[in-house]
Amino acid sequence: MIFMKKKFQFTIRMKLMTISFLLLTIPLVILGLLSYQKTTSSLNKLGEKNLKNSVEMTIELIDALNKEVEKGTLSLEEAQEQVKVAILGEKNADGKRPINKNFDLGENGYLYIIDQKGTLIAHPVVEGRQGWNDEDSKGVKFNQKMIKTGNEGGGLTYYEWALPDNENRIEKKVAYSKTDPHWGWVVCAGTYLMDFNQPAKDLLVFLMIVIGATIVIGFFIVWLFSNSISKPIHAVSERMHLLANGDLTQGEIKIRSKDETQNLAHAINQLQNKLKEMITNISNASEVLTSHSEEMTHSANEVKAGSEQVSTTMQELASGAETQASSASDMAAKMEVFVEKVQDASEKGEHIESVSREVLEIAGKGNKLMMSSTEQMSKIDEIFQQSVDKVLGLNGHLQKITKLVSVIQGIADQTNLLALNAAIEAARAGENGKGFAVVADEVRKLAEQVSVSISDITSIVDNIQNESKNVVDALKSGYQEVEQGTEQIKNTGATFQTINKAVTDMVHHIQTIASNLTEIASNSREMNRSIEEIASISEQSAAGIEQTSAAAEQTSSSMEEVANSSEQLAKLAEELNEFVRQFKL
């Protein structure tokens, strides 16, 4: 199928040769035909003119001889015979006359004379024959027509007649006829049109030879020219097919012509070099990628194995840390028993110190609470005072709002009145004021809505003012109660300060008694805390080791994913190598 397509492909060479052949042939053929037609027409006119001149010359001869007859120099018969001899020749023994070649009437042309009855007075072959009813192959009675034309002042008559040497071949003839005014003869000069056109035919043959030679030479030149264009293009096309099939082994295309084909070949050479360079780089990169992916896979497997080993080691360390934590916990339990015994030994002193401390703390807390309560009551007093001031200030703002509402109410009433007046004026204006009446009605509705809103706002402001008055009264009443509470708390605070001083002195004496027992208990607790810290650290170590083990396992899993990705990368690199191998470098 590809071969058949290539075989019947209309190539650039064929297109150039076809177009050039048409451009060369058509003008030459048209020029030849026009030249032939022009020449034929000119020759026909020239032949017709020769026929006419021959007839006119014969009539002039008749006129001259007739004058001789009138003078008596010649008889009529002698004069008429001289005319016949002049246009044809002497009559032969067989009654025929030769054709006078001195008259240029073509190969088969001759002069002849007929009378008004159609008798052939002078003729090369059938002189004396009656030709009134002679007709051609189409039934045209040409002798009658020539007589009529001659009597009308002269003219041409066309008819068809067989050739002298071939009766089966009919050709078109033309004859010029004119009547002699002296003797009544109709002098005719006739010939075949082909005799007139023979030079044109010779010219046509010559033109055909020239056209043929020109076409052959032009075809050869066009073939060379098209070959100079199609060969480089064919070379470029073949190279593109090779590039499409991955063949980059060919050398550069070399074209000598300094035109676009050389630029095209240069571009194809650059394309091939760039493709070769790109494919080489891709091949090298894919090989490096394959090598690196294999190394990455190997490294990932090694890291995975190391992570698994670390995970195993961490699990063993975790087991040992758990054992250590268990031992530390047992030691802590035993130490707690020892601390309890020491605590029993110092229970009396600690109990006394504890009670005294609690009393001191309670007294101190009470004193602090009283001081805090005093400060809080002072703040409450200040807050109440500020609240009263702010509510009073709010009342002032509400009064300003009331004034603004009154102003807006006045504006709304005025707007409503203006809208009413505008509606009245629009009604007076009739049709011209309808649009303005609609606008005035909308303005009036808006003014009414504003009035309704102002009424609602006024009602809300009045309610707020009433509530603010109630709040002010309540705040003032609460402020008085706060002042009384503040005074009572101050008195209670003084009492707590006295109690705190007495308890402080008592605790100072008790602390000296419990000092030794406290030191022993403190040392015991320090030991217990150390043991507990050891147990806690052991537990934390075990937890950390478990976390490290989990991280190692996670690392192993990640390395396994990395290894899988590396294998996939290696496969992609191998596929890229397979693609690159399709090209021949």
TrEMBL record:
Subcellular location per the Swiss-Prot or TrEMBL entry: Cell membrane
Topology of this chain in the membrane: Multi-pass membrane protein
Coiled-coil residues: 48-82, 261-288
Start and end residues of each Methyl-accepting transducer domain: 299-549
Family stated for the protein in its record: Belongs to the methyl-accepting chemotaxis (MCP) protein family.
HAMP domain boundaries: 227-280
Gene Ontology biological-process annotations: signal transduction
Biased composition (Low complexity): 545-561
Protein name: Chemotaxis protein
CDD domains, sorted: HAMP (cd06225), MCP_signal (cd11386), PDC2_HK_sensor (cd18774)
Segments crossing the lipid bilayer: 203-225
Any matching Pfam family: HAMP
CC annotations in GO: plasma membrane
Compositional bias per record (Polar residues), positions renumbered to this chain: 308-327
Keywords, comma-separated and alphabetical: Cell membrane, Coiled coil, Membrane, Transducer, Transmembrane, Transmembrane helix
Region (Disordered): 293-327, 545-566
